Amino acid sequence: MGKTSGVKENIYFQLFWSFFKLGLFTIGGGLAMIPLIQGIVVDEKHWMTEEEAVDCIAVSQGLPGVVAINMATYIGHRKKGIGGALAATVGVILPSFVIIILIVKLLQGIGDNPYVQGALVGIKAAATGLIAFSAYKVGKQVLKKPFQWILALASFGLIAGLSVSAVWAIVGGIAAGLVYTAVMEKRKNRDGGERV
Asked: Is the pLDDT of residue 7 over 60?
């Protein structure tokens, strides 16, 4: 029981191994990994509450870089500081790093094969489905008030319809959220402290 139990209980190993498995078996990367990360972090390991995980997604999405890597770093740091951040981040990156190198070597010889091209078409379609599911799941958790729905739809419209950069949509969302909170706080104070 001694050594094996110690390894299983070691939080650094748990962070590395949990995110390594995610990086190894998740097709679609980035956004497609969000529901799986939530499943492990909230439901399985109980490292965060549902609300904390949604905050983690928001922060990770609002920063430069890949959302899954940002989430791994955030969660690892939250659990065990810099060492935890490194363990989780290396865990989630390592499988992709090794697999991409192997695939590039392999595709150099067979990249024009119609079966390989067909497989890539199928992978892209499946990844799109995973991303759509991720958007649905996160939206269901986050969009609870009419203001949030309006802001989400406006951001989607600006990005999809007018090709506005996602960075500007996030900056606009921050500004709108601050203005909305200030207005609601003012209204709450004016109405005698009752919640509006």
From this structure: no
